[in-house]
Amino acid sequence: MKLLSRYLLGAGLLVNLTVLAAPLNFDFKDPKGVNNATFKLDAPLEAISGNATGISGTVAFDPQAPAATTGKIVVATSSLRVGNPIQQEHMLGAQWLDAAKYPEISFTARELKNVKTSGDTTTAEVVGTFSLKGISKTLTVPVKLTYLKDKLGQRVPDLKGDLLVIRANFSIKRSDFGIMPGQAEEKVAETIELTLSIAGAAPR
């Protein structure tokens, strides 16, 4: 009986530890609509910059084990905006991004490398799959994750929970994703610089 009691106690402790160690699921569909990704192309004749706000996705993050972070961030192609209406039409049209045929741009995180955590902030290199215009490439992207416990209410009143802020800066080549390769490079740069600054919510 004593041995059984010890076994049950140990099993209960293991269950409790498992519950405590479970990752939190952060939803990046921001009700405030302030999450955004920005992009910049700096060609010899013209510089183009814009942003996208149609961001969604889910990231699993464990504050006790940030290296185990996984998830997927999605940007609605149609939400990309530039200041010039003609450039806007061309950008989303069939020759360039073809938003009607390829409605999503996404990054799926598979693993984190070179993870360093200090306080609530984790820096790492995230290895994952970046998908654009029907083409997927493996990328390694520097990322900063900031875990903000009990801060959801300060962003969205009347909600309790945690926030996870993701910041990343990286670049891609438009020719790698079939975006008019080799065309109009004096006005539309080959390199696209991307910046991500988003917050996800884990209500409770």
Q: Supply the helix-strand structural class.
A: alpha+beta
Determine the CATH topology.
Answer: Lipocalin
What is the level-2 CATH architecture name? Beta Barrel
Major β-sheet strand ordering: 1-4-5-7-8-9-10-11-2-3-6
C-alpha Rg (nearest Å): 21 Å
Helix segment tally: 3
Terminal CA distance reads: 39 Å
Overall description:
- The chain is α+β, with helices and mostly antiparallel strands.
- The chain has one domain (23-203): Beta Barrel (Lipocalin).
- Helix content is 16%, strand content 50%.
- The protein has an eleven-stranded antiparallel sheet, covered by helices on one side.
- A hairpin with a 4-residue loop joins β2 (36-42) and β3 (47-52).
- The relative contact order is 0.18.
